[in-house]
Specification:
Layout: H1 10-25, H2 30-37, H3 41-48, H4 56-65, H5 71-78, H6 88-97, E1 100-105, H7 116-122, H8 127-136, E2 149-155, H9 166-178, E3 185-190, E4 203-207, E5 213-217, E6 224-226, H10 229-245, H11 249-263
Parallel strand pairs: 1-2, 2-3
Antiparallel strand pairs: 1-4, 4-5, 5-6
């Protein structure tokens, strides 16, 4: 499977098309079906468009609601819908559609706030990947609809991790400081050692206009998209705990200036 900008997995597209067919056959709208299944209509839409993987328990509930006698569940198994797949195939769409993003990074700057040179070092000079990352950042500059509200929590380690040398680090920190006057983006530093809630790695929680939520979690092997309520609740709890440990925006700005001048000048 390829990265950003490539086709969605065909098994998701095929499964979603069948969900749409069966839903329309019984005369339900996406919102009506979502209400009966206790999910949002937009969530049903994402499944039908092949943008997200439908979990087995929801598939079973759909099958029962639509009176399919197990046909949809069998299709889920036939299409190997349980197969793991990288989450980045659709995450940029999530960023573009959401109204809020809450991000935590333990070792590097959050992608939407990276400078081009900083990203180039992390992406090992892959210019196509760098261009894709920079293109994602357009969501922060759009006018219609307004850009999402973004809160980024960065551990102190981020500011001591030498990505690309002094010039790259200084430019990157200056870029982060520029966001401290933004009405839409807040950057907060978590001082000291990485707290227990942050040891599992970086994550982002996206909130859509209908208040539905989706999360992206970094792991050693791949990024993972999470939609299960229990998983989301755990990440939201971790984010709240991390934010409680973070410096306020003005103190975070002072911290960044101090580190930039003392370490990266």
């Amino acid at each position: 499977m390829s990265g950003i900008g490539q086709e969605k997995p065909r098994n998701l597209i095929a499964f979603g098309a069948q969900v749409r067919h069966y839903r329309q056959r019984v005369g339900l709208s996406q919102d009506q079906m979502g209400e009966k299944l206790h999910v949002s209509g937009s969530w049903i839409g994402r499944i039908e468009r092949g943008e997200i993987r439908c979990k087995l328990d929801l598939t079973k509930a759909m099958d029962k609601l639509l009176g399919l006698g197990g046909a949809l569940v069998q299709l889920w198994h036939d299409l190997d819908m349980a197969a793991a797949f990288p989450a980045w195939f659709d995450w940029y769409r999530v960023e573009a559609d959401c109204v809020r993003l809450h991000a935590y990074e333990m070792a590097v700057v959050y992608g939407l706030l990276q400078t081009e040179d900083y990203a180039r070092v992390l992406l090992k000079g892959d210019e196509e990947a760098v261009a894709a990352r920079m293109a994602r950042q357009a969501v922060l500059r759009r006018e219609d609809p307004p850009p999402p509200y973004v809160n980024v929590l960065l551990s102190e380690l981020v500011f001591h991790n030498p990505v690309g040398g002094k010039e790259v680090m200084r430019e990157q920190i200056e870029h982060l400081i520029s966001f401290t006057t933004s009405e839409r983006v807040t950057v907060q530093v978590i001082p000291g050692m990485v707290p227990p809630e942050g040891n599992s790695g970086a994550f982002v929680i996206a909130t859509a206009a209908d208040r539905s939520e989706l999360a992206y979690v970094d792991s050693a092997a791949r990024g993972l998209t999470m939609a299960d309520p229990a998983d989301l609740d755990g990440l939201i709890t971790a984010h709240d705990a991390l934010r409680a440990r973070a410096l306020p925006v003005d103190m975070s700005r002072d911290f960044m200036i101090k580190v930039m001048e003392e370490r990266w000048t």
